[in-house]
Design a protein that fits this description.
167 residues, alpha/beta, Rossmann fold, 5-stranded parallel sheet, 40% helix, 19% strand
């Protein structure tokens, strides 16, 4: 559960993370009833200002825990749904943190990608199986994403794209 105590001076991130936690948890549980594979993609993963070594106050940390909970719920009901995440970051220091995640989440397929999100869109799409449901979170620092460049994400069937505009 997201705690306001971890968000001193960045309360707007708290609001975003509460929304993400509640929405994503419900979405993953629902989509896993129809899809054998659910993929979370964070186009600007960071982490930027995490106050936890477990990244509990980051979008990807919240998403990974939601994927894990949904996977466990479905498995307890006799259905084994594959859950994975693609985490994109271009800043070297932040990317180093992302590289520590795969061993911490061995039950999920966590794939950190280093580079510019827009340039990596073809690679990202190639990692997502055609029959999987994909959820894309686009939360850049500043808003400078040409919509034409993300058209392949918007056109992908069985997908949802969430944009975060924060001022």
């Amino acid at each position: 559960m997201v705690s306001l105590d971890n968000y001193k001076g960045r309360e707007q991130s708290y609001v975003k993370h509460v929304l993400l936690e509640q929405y994503l948890e419900a979405l993953i549980h629902k989509t896993a009833s129809a899809y054998q594979h659910v993929v979370y993609v964070d186009g600007f993963a960071g982490p930027w200002q995490s106050s936890s070594e477990q990244f509990d106050d980051t979008s990807f940390g919240i998403a990974l825990k939601a994927l894990r909970r949904a996977k466990g719920s479905w498995k307890a009901g006799g259905r084994d749904v594959k859950m994975s995440a693609i985490l994109v970051e271009k800043m070297p220091a932040a990317f180093q943190n992302l590289e520590t995640l795969p061993p911490k989440f061995p039950d999920l397929g966590v794939k950190p990608l280093k580079g510019d999100f827009l340039s990596l869109i073809p690679a990202i799409l190639s990692y997502i199986p055609k029959d999987a449901f994909a959820f894309f979170l686009l939360d850049p620092k500043g808003w400078r994403i040409p919509l034409r460049k993300i058209q392949p994400l918007l056109a992908r069937p069985n997908s949802e794209v969430m944009f975060n505009f924060m001022f």
